[in-house]
Predict the 3D structure of the following.
Amino acid sequence: MSGARMFSSTDRWLLKKLYAAIGSPSVRIALKDGPAVGPKDGHVVAGLVIHDRATLMRIVVNPEVAFGEAYADGAVEIQGGLLTLLDAVYCPMAARGNSSWYPRLASWWLRLSQGNTRLGSRHNIHHHYDLGNQFYQLWLDRNLVYTCAYFPEPSATLEEAQLAKMNHVCRKVWLRPGERVVEAGCGWGSLALHMARHYGVKVKAFNISHEQIVYARWRAQQEGLDGRVEFIEDDYRNIYGRFDAFVSVGMLEHVGREHYREMSKVIHRTIGDSGRGLLHFIGRNQRRPLNAWVRKRIFPGAYPPSLREVADILEPSDFAVLDVENLRLHYARTLEHWLERFESSRQQVATMFDDRFVRIWRLYLAGSVAAFRAGSMQLFQVVFAGPQCKAIPWTRAYLYQPQPQSAGRMQAAD
Amino acid sequence: MSGARMFSSTDRWLLKKLYAAIGSPSVRIALKDGPAVGPKDGHVVAGLVIHDRATLMRIVVNPEVAFGEAYADGAVEIQGGLLTLLDAVYCPMAARGNSSWYPRLASWWLRLSQGNTRLGSRHNIHHHYDLGNQFYQLWLDRNLVYTCAYFPEPSATLEEAQLAKMNHVCRKVWLRPGERVVEAGCGWGSLALHMARHYGVKVKAFNISHEQIVYARWRAQQEGLDGRVEFIEDDYRNIYGRFDAFVSVGMLEHVGREHYREMSKVIHRTIGDSGRGLLHFIGRNQRRPLNAWVRKRIFPGAYPPSLREVADILEPSDFAVLDVENLRLHYARTLEHWLERFESSRQQVATMFDDRFVRIWRLYLAGSVAAFRAGSMQLFQVVFAGPQCKAIPWTRAYLYQPQPQSAGRMQAAD
């Protein structure tokens, strides 16, 4: 066998191995100027061309991480659109985990090195949320809500859907004027300000992202709400004081399951036995680590829990789960909007950072769209109440009535 | 110290011990012609008079079981109403478990002796559900629905609320005409017949209560639905065949947590990766055995799970939880209706059985009202879908629109 032929047959073997490992999708995978593999039925929706043998080998050894790195480096070429390719791959992969030892080891190492201690959390959050508000302003809605929106109709705009999400959350915890609310992980402050303005509550909102807190305080002042909303640059573990409701939208993913007992204690000491709360978070159907490349490049230390794991937070205080809603299709739609806006601003993003950054973020956003579409990620809103919580909604019908305010629509428990 | 005085001080000590063990409620507890204990603030809403020292001692040793037995035997007298007394006791007890060794041991022994093997389940179900249809006809709604109803308004009648519950369930699993549905634990067949008549589906419904199945078959024939609903007298573990949806209302409590993996397999083999399902069951905020007296006299082998335990059923097949609703206030209301109807028929019940039976059932119904009111029991409806389920509702708004039919109101996932 000549050297060239031997290389070619090794390449073919590697491509076949990779193709099988990702669930034999409707995708053609080729080595540039070399062999290719694809579906037996010939139905190809997208193509991937890997530029060199070294990249192919890295992808075979650890597909999750090495594909992301290769895309970031421009060492692969996508044919037929990135999202089409990812949709095609995510669908058969939805129910799979890492199978071989090397990716598992790498994933485990990442988890160790990105732990969510108080200091670790500060690093992890800084990495993502302190990239500069200007960057996020390019592609989020005008209120900078960086969590899953709620689209009453799929055709709603992103601005409408983020507003609807904030109302959905406020009504789910049936805020009443004069109540005290604590928010753990408040982003740029939109929800806290919305609660104070439209539901007449007083809010203490915590966040360890410096850039976000500075922005949120500025907004509160601009909007004359600084007397009713206090933005505190501190860790959720330092929340003290008594409140009627605990709300956390998009923070639980950053807590890490090693810290759920701490979180449980924080919630109980803030709302006691008679309060209620809402957790909004990216979750999974079962325990499984987040995509290792996403943890490496985008969200260090992130972990989306299963509902079983969330029981570690609610059970110790005898909290009753009142309502769980899965909004994964809404997160897919939200991410489609973000991706579209991101693509429209990619020149500006490249000027702020560089082309590699653009590719990394494009892959993260498109990969997330595909993951939520395929159902390998879920978005849960969990409403809970303490064992002595006296007034709970009789049905959920009020959530679907046109009035934005929920107060006064409740029926007491007894 | 004279013998009489020694007895009296022992009695007082026992009463104090009992009073503290049940959480010092607003109840006066007395030994007949002897000492009494009660709240320090003097606020008494109900009274319990224990007829003799031996009964008092049994209640102190194992309050749950011995109180039930004493009430059944007429060895205690209630002042101010049974339900008032139970409400007063359940409220402070909501978050407690058995504390001392003897009740734990007795509870464990009960669990062993009432296991839900195929044979065990047959005994356990026969004990309760084969008491005679005439008995249940005295106090259930006209359709004999023996599970938590859904009251769109608290003032709805029981008949309206049971109808609304059946529609709520059917719409939650978005039944479409022509689909095949399997029901595990079908009672007297109301839901199966309702699904076939109003949602145009074909149903196979399983139950191991002979009396119920005979009645359900008769109804299907009477109503001309025997071509579309098949009632099968068999264990859920013997369900085979492929269906679009799996529905189980009020059976999970009888499965026992040792058998959740079996149940998980049954669900997966019937609906595969693309179906969906609904579990409606009495649950708890955390793992805790059911009241031992209720297991002894009413529901042998019953166990209401926590949501964490239900994950044992859903996680192995990668089922996604789409919706969880807690209807505990609705079960309290349902039980109030049942208790009221039961009391109106107590003469007839006593003729069918005896006075002891009347007292046992009164305590079971009133105790259940109190437990659901206090929040020591929950009622969960969990909707789930397989990882390949393609059409899931965009929002839950359609559940709250007036149309009884859900078909056609869906938005496909993609």
